[in-house]
Amino acid sequence: MTIALTTPVEPTPVERTLEKTVDGTTVRMSAEQVEAFGAELDAIKERVIADLGERDADYIRRMVKAQRGLEIGGRALLYLPPLWPVATALLGLSKIIDNMEIGHNVMHGQYDWMGDPALQGRVFEWDTACPAEHWRHSHNYMHHTYTNIVDMDRDIGYGILRMSKDQKWSPYYLGNPVYAFLLMVLFQYGVALHEMETERIRAGEISVGDKREVLKEIWRKTKKQTLKDYVAFPLLAGPFAPFVFAGNLTANLMRNVWAFMIIFCGHFPAGTQEFSIEETKAETRGQWYFRQILGSANLTGGKLFHILSGNLSFQIEHHLFPDLPAHRYAEISGEVRDICRRYGIPYNSGSLPKQFASVVRKIVRLALP
């Protein structure tokens, strides 16, 4: 199955006042303000695009080199049992960087302009169970086009969880905390199954048979990853096979838990908003930007933290400009925050512990009617 990466078509503008209640306060913008707001954000994007060059190419190549070095070092040290914790940590870090800072960002087309065949978003494949072609559709197109629109954005709960009060409750959601924990530790497999549209299968809208080809592609990728990490590398290790097996298992767990935390803290902490299909019909560019900001949250931290998050710690800027090199988000975040302040739009930002605690509270609260 081949899925084309589709660029959203610019909708027919609708002149209307924007209103959204956030934590009891109504955010209101006139049509003229929305247009000016969109123009200011467009100007930021155009300025960054005009400035792209060797600095950006050097950055992503350094990340690729660092990821490969961490992986080689980690796999080599697994042959020295006393250094197993260090080896596993290095391998886990390599998987995190491959997943977050390289794979996710490259597949967004952030480095297509370089013309490097190894960094072309449409053909890049990453070291995780989810087929990259599926990700380019379910994430790059569906999620980034319909961000936080209930019944359109399948990232709201990943078809497993109830993450919005606007999602109709059923007794199934009493297991929300359990499902969330399982999704966290098995995150690469949850992401791999995303394109199966399990919520539609549960609702009886489609059958598993309708997704036969999708399931085959998921199985091919998952089988490849499983054989690599849990069969091939352990067999090559001979008497050290148990250490290599356990190291790979732990490194994958590190990557799964970290990715879950970063992604959920960027989308679902207290203060993030969901939207209905009706209120987002025929959005202008400014209205689309408005939705991206209110549906996102940032994380505070140092430079290494931002790298390990794939710069998705700047989730607001990423949702505004998903095809700009992510390492640029830190540079423009101050401008984006200032624009939000001037137009009276909340700019949601907090530490990882704070944001994750609010995500956990939401998961537990929404388990109930």
UniProtKB/TrEMBL annotation:
Residues that span the membrane, as ranges: 172-192, 230-251
Keyword Lipid metabolism included in the entry's annotation: no
Top EC category: oxidoreductase
GO molecular function, one term: oxidoreductase activity, acting on paired donors, with oxidation of a pair of donors resulting in the reduction of molecular oxygen to two molecules of water
GO cellular component: membrane
Cited InterPro entries: FA_desaturase_dom, Fatty_acid_desaturase
UniProt entry tagged with the keyword Disulfide bond: no
The entry's keywords: Membrane, Oxidoreductase, Transmembrane, Transmembrane helix
Listed GO biological process terms: lipid metabolic process
Residues in Fatty acid desaturase domain copies: 83-349
Superkingdom as given in the UniProt entry: Bacteria
EC number: 1.14.19.-
Protein name, as recorded: Fatty acid desaturase
Species the sequence originates in: Mycolicibacterium chitae
